[in-house]
Amino acid sequence: MTRTFDHLVGEAESVSVDGWDFSWLDGRATEQRPSWGYQRILGERLAGVGSVLDIQTGGGEVLAGAGPLPPLTVATESWPPNIEKATRLLHPLGAAVVADADEPPLPFGDGAFELVTSRHPVTVWWDEIARVLRPGGAYLSQQVGPASVFELVEYFLGPQPERVRRGRHPDDAVAAAAGAGLEVVDLRSERLRTEFHDIGAVIYFLRKVIWMVPGFTVGRYRDRLRELHEQIESDGPFVAQTARFLIEARKTG
Asked: Which residues on adjacent β-strands are paired with residue 43?
């Protein structure tokens, strides 16, 4: 049975967007995954260290699912609902969750960790990452690349300037890592297909990934959302390209 626009909107507005679990989108949206398998690589790195800091852990789902955690495992998060969720998930696994504003400095001493990780960080404070790493330690991160899902962003915001479209370019990450004294040992990037099968999936995504369309609310964009709903109903899924890159950098010395 075809669900009405109002039903889909009400459903997507009422569901919780806490944490970094996107399972609500199962059957409603699909995202092609990068070929490298971040969580698998993370698990391999965790197995070889005694200490790790996971920055901007969200609800802790990725870290918790990567396998046994090192004896010293700390995760940071800034959003109160995610802090609570990550605490419930990670504390039983032996990890500490620290509330942090995602602004420098990180609340840890110099050389505190053998490994620093982050999946889809909003900001990357390279100097701070280098500071808290021990000599020989590594930073592993999967990040959102340039113009990711911009078909959807520009549907609501209109064409974006080139400087905005180029933001989060992996070349800039390499330069920033080098500037902080880190040596990039692995860099991979891919563009991947994403499909939104109903307008509820679009609303949920934009409520959860709040930096895609800043200030997004259903009320503010209701007319545009209705137009997109009609487009999906007549033409099929809304298709966008997701950009991802994997970067691993080591602290020499």
From this structure: none
